[in-house]
Design brief:
The protein is mostly helical. The chain has 2 domains: 2-65; 72-196, Rossmann fold, CATH 3.40.50.1000. 50% of the residues lie in helices and 9% in strands. The protein contains 9 helices and 5 strands; from the N terminus they run αααααβαβαβαββα. It has helices at residues 2-12, 20-24, 31-38, 43-65, 72-81, 94-103, 122-133, 144-152, 183-196, and strands at residues 86-89, 110-114, 139-141, 157-160, 175-177. The strands form 2 sheets. A 3-stranded parallel sheet has the order 3-4-5, sandwiched between helices. Strands 1-2 form a two-stranded parallel ribbon. It is globular and about 55 Å long. It starts with a helix and ends in a 9-residue tail after the last helix. 30% of the residues are buried.
Length: 205
């Protein structure tokens, strides 16, 4: 649902869109990185026009055609029933995160939404969210920056192989899941390891 919006926004500012796989490879990166990757040398003015066009296009594409990966809602419900509190920590803006979670009817599962800010990078925001939550925290994500943020904070992680991450991006994850259905049992494995005092590093397979 994001790729069509990006293509529309690029065309609006006069930039020929790259292949879809190149657009998708930028998912999860901070906005300035995405802008420079898709519009190298475009300059701040072009980037700002692109971002405004992207916001307009996102509202349309997400509301009209957005859908989650199969099994995600069921997984979130099972994780919630197991007593885990959940939050979103993304390199996207908070407006986009709110739009997506509302459109996909999953907003109710998350106690906190954290978008990119000038104060902290992703690792810094994960660290603050874990501190506020207290107890055991686990980072779940499909890109290398999620796994790196977990490692920087000394937290276990679950790499989602069904997402947008490329080959090898999730090698540093504590555990890897091939589908949403595997996540609840992996979280339970993390919980058992924490209770028993077993080290979760190096990554378990």
């Amino acid at each position: 649902m994001l790729t069509p919006a990006i293509r529309t926004a690029l065309e609006e500012v006069g930039v020929s869109p790259p292949p879809d796989e190149e657009i998708e490879a930028s998912y999860g990166e901070p906005i300035p990185v995405i802008c420079e990757r898709l519009m190298p040398g475009g300059g701040e003015r072009v980037h700002m026009r692109f971002l405004e066009a992207l916001r307009r296009a996102q509202r349309e594409t997400i509301r009209s055609g957005g859908e989650s990966y199969p099994g995600v809602r069921e997984m979130l419900s099972e994780v919630e029933d197991a007593g885990w509190g959940m939050a979103v920590c993304s390199n996207a803006g908070i407006e986009y995160i709110e739009l997506v979670t509302e459109a996909l009817a999953i907003r109710r599962f998350f106690k906190e939404l954290s978008g990119i800010s000038g104060e902290f990078d992703k690792a810094g925001r994960v660290r603050e969210m874990a501190r506020r939550a207290g107890g055991l925290s686990v980072v779940i994500g499909d890109r290398y920056m999620d796994i790196e943020a977990a490692a920087a904070c000394g937290l276990p992680s679950i790499g989602c192989r069904w997402g947008y991450g490329g080959e090898g991006e999730l090698e540093g994850a504590t555990f890897s899941a091939d589908s949403p259905a595997e996540v609840p049992s992996l979280l339970e494995a993390v919980r058992r390891g924490a209770v028993s005092g077993r080290s979760l590093y190096p990554p378990q397979r």
